[in-house]
Amino acid sequence: MLMERVFQCVDDIYDDIMKEGSQDLKQKIQELENVVGTNHPEILKKGIMLSMTFCLNQLQFHDELFEALLIDNIDYMIENIPDMKKSIQLQVSLRGLEQHVHRQIVLPYYMTLADMAYAILAIFQADGSHLFSIECQQGRFGCEQCDEEMIDDYAANVFLNDLQLKKGSQLSLWYDFGDDYFFDIQVIHIQTESDLNEIGDGQILSGQGYGIWEDEHALLEMYYKDYDEFIEKIHDFGLDEDDFIFDDFDVDVANEMFLEDFEFLRRNYEDSESI
């Protein structure tokens, strides 16, 4: 209910701007539309929401400040439109089980490291109940629940295109600092598209292995490397094979579930105070 009111407010402001905005603002909006190439009102609405948020945080509610902020946000978007039209193809493998559990996926090049992490965790069936961090040549970046002392910045503050990635670039995602799932990430290709690229355009191209078992990393490795020992171990725990998921990877099913799983993880990390 609350979010519906917020979006309705953004829609109303958008309509007012298009009808009664200043000449400077209308000119800036025209520049944005020229760079985007097609009509994408959602881009301008994102700028409106950002400007609204700043005004609310500063408890300053006057048109001059809002318009100045919106123009600044539009300038920022114009500068980054070229990267918003790019996609990035990644090869992601579970370290130690690279031959058994891996994915190849296409994502927007203009996305935060946090969103990239949610996407990767989604395609490997993680439930988002643990901390994560991403390591690359530029540093280490963690989820918002990480202690500041252990990271260089939060993953939500850094965009993929800020890292100046190219074919062959390497990153890693560390999920669950106790069970230690490491995903090795390699850039396969960065491509310019004809239109803006968003998370909904993401696509899983191929893969193998169901994914991970939460809190059971050792058993997952045992399953792939020594099946007889795995069976003996779970029997010792009073379990059997029916207590574990062994589903084969299905690319069609994975793509059907991808966006829903991604949004679930994003809400889980960004709407909760702790993991």
UniProtKB/TrEMBL annotation:
This is Plasmid pRiA4b ORF-3 family protein. SUPFAM superfamilies: MM3350-like. It comes from Allocoprobacillus halotolerans. InterPro entries: MM3350-like_sf, Plasmid_pRiA4b_Orf3-like. Residues 87-235 form the Plasmid pRiA4b Orf3-like domain.
